[in-house]
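From the pipeline queue, job 12 of 40. The input is one protein chain; the requested action is below.

Action: predict structure.
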Amino acid sequence: GWIWGSGGPLRSCPQPLAPGEWNAAEVRYRVQWRALEPALGRWREETVGGPPVVVGGTPTFSPYEIRVQAVNDAGKGPEPPVIVGYSGEDLPLVYPENVGVEILNSTSVRVRWSLAGAPRDLRGHLRGFRVGGD
């Protein structure tokens, strides 16, 4: 797929077209993106022969609207849908606090916690924390 972002990869998208779907001699891709926050930014674009497109200066884990449209000598392909992608994740700036453990049975426990700080300081998707035991 397409990968962008200096704050980390901004991921999105359709796979490049197979040659049998080109309908002309050479296909290129019109890639457009704009920041969603703090307010809608202006659309930026680059036309390339295929992925990836690398965009510099993106802040960590920020949402972007992205469009990828096929273009060839016969013209532009259909208007692409807008999808939302994020620039890359980084190590969190927050940590768990108020940790509690509930024993469910002899092989399972439930661990609960709250985060110290703002959700934006996670700098990515929270998938979990590693829990160790003696």
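Job complete. Strands lie at 2-4, 10-12, 27-35, 44-48, 63-72, 75-76, 83-86, 96-103, 109-115.
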